[in-house]
Design goal:
By secondary structure, this protein is mainly α. The protein is 66% helix and 0% strand. It has nine helices and no strands. The longest helix has 18 residues. It is elongated and about 80 Å long.
Length: 152
C-alpha cells in the first residue's frame, strides 16, 4: 500500500469516526486540498499534516502513527512499540533534541581539509612533492596546489 493511500484511508476513517466533513477540517487547509488528499491525488506536507491533526484533535505524531500502521497493516500499538524500540536502540527515546539544525561543513570540504593536512604534515617532515604523491596516491596537480596553500 502506498503511503498516500494509507494517509487517505486514515484521514477518511478519522473524519467519519469524529463525524466531521471535509469542510470541518478546512481551518487552514482548504476543503479541496482535503478532498485531493482523500482521493490520493496529492501528498500532505508536514505542515498540512500538523494542521489536519489539530483539526482532528490529535497530536501530529498520532496521525502519522495511524498512517504508518495502516500502510504496514499493523496496529497503532505495534507501530508505536517499534518506534520506541528503535529510538531506545539509538539512545534518543528520552534524550533532549535540538530544535535547529547545526551548520555542518560539506563532506567534500572535510575531505579536502584532511588532504591538505596530510600534504602539509609530510612537507613538514621533509618529504618532497614527488614523495608525497607516492605516499598519499594523490594527483600531482592536487599535491602541488595543496603544497603551496597556506591554510584551508
Amino acid at each position: 500500500m502506498l503511503l498516500r493511500q494509507a494517509y487517505a484511508a486514515v484521514l477518511q476513517m478519522l473524519r467519519a469516526r469524529l463525524g466531521l466533513s471535509q469542510h470541518d477540517l478546512a481551518q487552514t487547509v482548504t476543503q479541496s486540498h482535503v478532498s485531493q488528499l482523500e482521493a490520493v491525488k496529492t501528498s500532505a506536507t508536514l505542515e498540512v499534516s500538523q494542521e489536519l491533526a489539530e483539526a482532528l484533535h490529535l497530536h501530529p505524531v498520532s496521525l502519522l502513527v495511524l498512517v504508518h500502521a495502516a500502510q504496514d497493516q499493523k496496529t497503532a500499538r505495534e507501530t508505536l512499540i517499534l518506534a520506541m524500540e528503535e529510538l531506545n536502540a539509538i539512545e534518543l527515546l528520552d534524550a533532549s533534541l535540538p530544535t535547529n539544525p547545526n551548520d555542518m561543513p560539506h563532506p567534500q570540504t572535510i575531505a579536502a581539509g584532511k588532504k591538505w593536512e596530510a600534504v602539509q604534515g609530510l612537507k613538514k617532515e621533509g618529504h618532497s612533492q614527488a614523495e608525497v604523491i607516492q605516499i598519499l596516491g594523490l594527483p600531482k596537480s592536487t599535491v602541488g596546489r595543496l603544497w603551496h596553500k597556506k591554510n584551508l
